[in-house]
Amino acid sequence: MIDRSDRAVEFFKSGLNCSQSVFAAYAPDFGVDEKLAQRIAAAHGGGFGRLRELCGALTGAGMLAGLKFDDKMKVYETVQEMVRRFKDSNRSCICRELLGLDKAGEPNPKPEARTEGYYQTRPCVELVRQAAQIVAEVL
Question: How many angstroms separate the Cα of 114 from the Cα of each of 14, 62, 67, 96, 117?
């Protein structure tokens, strides 16, 4: 059986966004089809619609907490723990800060091509892996 963090990385490297990758890697465990999970999480990539706000990998993880728990307070507590762990490793949970961008800039819906250079200059693969591992630890 494939490790969920490896599955999330595979999804990301296949072209899914960060949020789709984490959410879809675990969604079947909660009775949600992978393809539906990818559609649900699509808007959250790139810091929510590529606005470079909250890291999409982390929002994918947070949505899984919503699938696991019925109690809103338990969801909030779980998400706060996920964010704490993520920030412990990455100093931030804001996409543009994680990418080293100075400011949000103009919204641009077009993602960059996933070339070898892209993977060498972006921390996203590792952030997807970390978020997926946090899911495994917290949920």
Answer: 9, 25, 30, 18, 8
Give strand pairing partners of 96.
none
- Would you list the domain boundaries of the chain? 4-138
Backbone dihedral angles phi then psi of residue 104, each to the nearest 5 degrees: -65, -35
pLDDT, tens digit, for every residue of 76-117? 999 999 999 999 999 999 999 999 987 766 677 788 888 888
Tokens of 129: 């892996």
- How far out from the chain centre does Cα 139 lie? 15
Tokens 């077009």 found at: 110
* CA pseudo-torsion sign 35, 62, 42, 127: negative
pTM recorded for the entire structure:
0.94
**Cα(28)–Cα(104) distance, integer angstroms:** 34
Amino acid of residue 45: G
